[in-house]
Amino acid sequence: MVNSYTLLASLQRFLHERGIDVDKLSIRDAALAMIDWQRLVPVDDLQKPVKSDVLLYRYGGWSEGCATGYKVSVMRRVTQAADGGGQTDWYAGITFMFEPSRFSSLPDFGTEASDWPSTDAFLHAIESSAAYRLAATERPMGVSVETGGLR
User: Fold this and answer.
1) pLDDT per position in the chain (151 positions), as tens?
2) CB-based contact 38:52 (threshold 8 Å)
């Protein structure tokens, strides 16, 4: 059965098997790991077929209570048909959290891997983004493997 927890467990297992320490990843390395995970680890679910399986690159400000930060994420979104005719999205990925002051002038941004004709174009979109260029010289406050819908 596919859900956010099984998807997250699959990502954690994939990273562990390859000896990838997320705390030492760059955003580019995280994107490459996510591309490999999607390519090499298909989503298996016999109960409901998968409608789509895409990679997302997103960034934007984040606030919860008195805590604020700037998130840069590479996520995998698996979409399945839901009971009653709708659809359900499941997410898992790698998120970098930065101190928000240098990023405050940037608008939120997101793109899907399926929008690009090749992996190289998706990586180019990531590497040419404003947040990526700023993040290249910043040390993140934290890096996490997470699940859930962002923004």
Assistant:
1) 778 888 999 999 999 999 999 999 999 999 999 999 998 998 876 566 788 889 999 999 877 767 788 999 999 999 988 878 888 899 999 999 999 888 888 999 988 887 556 788 889 999 999 999 999 888 999 999 998 654 4
2) no
Contact 125, 58 (CB under 8 A): no
Rounded Cα gap, residues 67 and 26, in angstroms: 24
The span from the CA of 151 to the CA of 146, in Å, is: 14
Distance of CA 74 to the CA centre of its chain: 2
**Rounded distance between C-alpha atoms, residue 77 and residue 49, angstroms:** 14
pTM attached to this predicted model: 0.89
The H or E element that residue 47 is part of is: none
Q: Which of 94, 100, 98, 105 is nearest to 35 (CA)?
A: 94
> The domain containing residue 124 runs over which residues?
4-147
Number of independent structural domains in the chain: 1
Distance CA 107, CA 109 (A): 6
The answer to whether 43 touches 78, Cβ cutoff 8 Å, is yes
